[in-house]
Amino acid sequence: MNKLIQKYADALYFRALVQMIPNFGGAIDTILYEKGSQWRQERLKSLLNYFDQQLNEISKDNETLKEKINKKIDTEEFYNLFIHCVE
């Protein structure tokens, strides 16, 4: 059903023919087009929410990694290793 309504929304000439049906054409077109539009908006909203969640996870992982690296760098062992490599 979703694919059929999506195809209807994309078929401009067919929509124009439906609108030409006396008395009910405009209403039928509006109902079908609005339902497809709602589904499209829901899918887009779902996709944006998913991206937001993924970006938040990446941000948290980045902060965790940053903290771990700083803990390793701020040690005497790292300093000694670095000096040994430079010499």
Q: Which spans have pLDDT < 50 for at least 5 consecutive residues? A: none
How much is the average pLDDT? Answer: 82
Helices and strands, in order, run as: HHHH
Kindly report the oligomeric state of this protein: single chain
Total number of beta strands: 0
Summarize the main sheet.
Answer: none
- Discrete helix count: 4
Which secondary-structure class do the elements indicate? Answer: mainly alpha
| Helical content (DSSP H or I, runs of 4+) | over 70%
Distance between the ends: 71 Å
Q: How many structural domains in the coordinates?
A: 1
Radius of gyration: 29 Å
Describe the protein's architecture and organization.
With 87 residues, this protein is mostly helical. The protein has one domain (2-86). It is built from four helices and no strands. It has helices spanning 2-10, 12-19, 25-73, 76-86. α2 runs antiparallel to α3 (25-73).
Q: How are the secondary structure elements laid out?
A:
Elements: H1 2-10, H2 12-19, H3 25-73, H4 76-86
Provide key terms for this protein:
87 residues, single chain, mainly alpha
Summarize the structure in short:
This protein has four helices and no strands.
